[in-house]
Amino acid sequence: MATRTRLVAGNWKMHGSRAANDALLGALVSGARELAGIECVVCPPFPYLPQAADRLAGSRVGWGAQNLSEHGSGAYTGEVSAAMLVEFGCRYAIVGHSERRALYGETDTQVAAKFAAARKAGLVPILCVGESLAERESGRTEQVVARQLDAVVDASGADSLARAVLAYEPVWAIGTGRNATPEQAQHVHAYLRARVARSDDGIAAGLRILYGGSVKAANAAAIFAMPDVDGGLIGGASLVAEDFLAICRAAEGKE
Ligand code: PEP
After folding, report:
1. Tell me: the pLDDT tens digits for 155-199?
2. pTM here?
3. Which ligand 1 atom sits nearest the alpha carbon of residue 167?
4. Domains in the chain: how many in total?
5. What phi and psi values does residue 190 have, to the nearest 5 degrees?
């Protein structure tokens, strides 16, 4: 059976300042010295990537971006390319976060193009999928996450998931304080892994699938104990060093 190194990634969203980041990054660098056997990453807003690169270089904490352009370069005012992110040491890029899909109209096709652009530049995309409350309540969870995943597999092939991370983020659980139960998360994670396995068993077995949606220090251990949950994508709790580190320790199996 493939071993999957657990990953805990912090999505800072549009939060932070030079001073606040300095304190947070400093606390993460020292707290992360005790971590072993897991990967820990933060995704600050674009302007703070050089600050993250300076503070985190040589530490156990990696960094990535929250978004990127699907285009390589050109007349795309306000956009940031994958190659630019690589220049600032990013290893990961979140693509298809539900806030991008809902607030900025990102389509499955556009998300698939961003996924491909990230991989082409050598970044590891963290592809977010997840259903709304109305979709869950009408029994369409599997149909929605399958559509979102298939858009990427159809565009880039199942092989592309060998260097990618999937994140199941039910929209109704993001920033609401209402997390999916461990069993609800496990059900969707197992479904996603089985769907990838239809194309490639080996890639499915090695694919890290993160859960995201109101993960806190108090509920992380129970969620991470599920066999198909390989870590978390953390919003609010990633802005508080002790909370994020406690979630990382839960991923180590120590909390
Ligand atoms: C997120 O933004 O990806 C997220 C999971 O947020 P929160 O942890 O705050 O629900």
Report:
1. 999 999 999 999 999 999 999 999 899 999 999 999 999 999 999
2. 0.97
3. 3
4. 1
5. -65, -40
Domain of 50, CATH number, reads 3.20.20.70
Dump pLDDT digits (tens) for 19-32.
999 999 999 999 99
How much distance in Å is there from the Cα of 131 to the middle of ligand 1? 14
- In the reported structure, the alpha carbon of residue 236 is separated from the centroid of ligand 1 by a whole-number distance in angstroms of 6
Q: Residue 52: which domain range? A: 46-236
Judged against a pLDDT cut of 90, whether residue 2 lies above it is answered with no
Q: What is the DSSP letter of 181?
A: P
pLDDT band at residue 3 using 50, 70 and 90 as cut-offs: confident
Residue 32 located in a structural domain? no
Structural domain includes residue 106? yes
Average pLDDT over residues 191-212: 98
Q: Ligand 1, closest atom to CA 13?
A: 2
For this structure, is 189 an active site residue?
no
- Could you tell me if residue 41 is inside a domain? no
Token pair in block for residue 167? 């994140």
Calculate the alpha carbon distances from 184 to 137, 149, 226 in Å. 13, 18, 10
214 ligand 1 Cβ < 6 A: yes
Q: Is 210 in the pocket of ligand 1 (CB under 6 A)?
A: no
148 Cα: distance to centroid of ligand 1 (angstroms): 18
CB-CB contact of 247 with 216 (8 Å)? yes
User: 125 in ligand 1 pocket by Cβ < 6 Å?
Assistant: no
Active site residue 169: yes
| Cα angle 175, 56, 122; round to 5 | 80
